[in-house]
Amino acid sequence: QVQLVESGGGLVQPGGSLRLSCAASGFYLEYYAIVWFRQAPGKEREGVSCISSSEDVYYSDSVKGRFTISRDSAKNTVYLQMNDLKPEHTGVYYCARHYDDYVPGTPSQVTDCGAWGQGTQVTVSA
User: Are 125 and 70 in contact (CB under 8 A)?
Assistant: First the structure.
């Protein structure tokens, strides 16, 4: 059974850091493009980062220079290191498996992905 489980969210002060994990089971994530999405309160779900099977990476303008996506194939886990967090980074973060037609280095939409985790809440507030 294909499953993605996010963890690592929580409450952090502005300027702080969090490391999110996306643990996969039922498939080897090294053969897929894995996308991190953020859904802020009252907003649509937005793709913020992606890592392809070849380890090409994508970052949205809102997180470029602050977030780093990485993969540990031995642990079947993708990470999102989030540094210098701002209140506008608040939201529920989801990881998702992109369909096989991903173009490396490009942004993703919700409709591009066919498997999702349950999400983990990130709140940036003083």
Answer: no
